[in-house]
Design goal:
The protein is α+β, with helices and mostly antiparallel strands and 187 residues long. The protein has 4 helices and 6 strands, in the order αβααβββββα. It is found in: Secreted.
Length: 187
């Protein structure tokens, strides 16, 4: 239980508990809404790594050998329900995802390339400046091959992919979260 402050002047007070946030996360997860497909044409041209086997050869050389310069597709999804917690200093979230990569053949058939589990801890720190709510988002995470990796798929060099994912999230994900969720974010 949380005690709400008494009002001595007109004000709007909004309180959201961890239960409400985690119930929403459960609902989105159960409904399958925490999935996203990313194709090569969705990435900005300036992104340092395009979704093509030629670009991915750094991480899985067998892909370029088997499928020379074919487009790829990523299927991102939550493996488990995200967990959210509220602390006096910040909002914390634990995200449990997977990224499955596919090579797209000329006949539009998708061939599995590799699968990674991606777990991230996200911290959002709201602040009030003047009459505006501001905030920042920070990210810590990692990637690993899922248990039971066998399937005859090429084994990507996970550490290189993890570094690239972190770079991509810091370059695009965190700034996007700051601009979308906290339009007046403090850098």
């Amino acid at each position: 239980p949380a005690a709400l402050p008494g009002a001595h002047e007109p004000m709007l007070l909004v309180a959201i508990t961890e239960f409400v946030a985690n119930s929403a996360a459960f609902t989105y997860f159960t409904a399958g809404a925490l999935r996203r497909n990313i194709s090569s044409n969705m990435l900005p041209r300036r992104f340092p790594l395009q979704l093509r086997t030629k670009s991915m050869a750094v991480f899985a050389p067998q892909l370029q050998e088997l499928y020379p310069d074919h487009p790829m597709e990523l299927r991102l999804s939550a493996r488990r329900q995200p967990l959210l917690s509220c602390r006096p200093d910040a909002l914390h979230g634990a995200l449990f995802g997977s990224a499955e990569a596919f090579v797209v053949l000329p006949n539009a058939t998708c061939v599995p390339a590799f699968l990674l589990n991606i777990d991230a801890n996200v911290t959002g720190k709201p602040t009030v400046a003047g009459n505006r709510l501001r905030g920042t988002v920070k990210l810590a995470g990692g990637a690993e091959l899922p248990p039971g990796w066998a399937q005859g798929l090429p084994v990507p060099q996970v550490k290189k992919l993890e570094n690239l994912l972190k770079f991509g999230l810091w370059l695009f994900g965190v700034p996007w979260a700051n601009s979308e969720c906290c339009p007046h974010a403090v850098p």
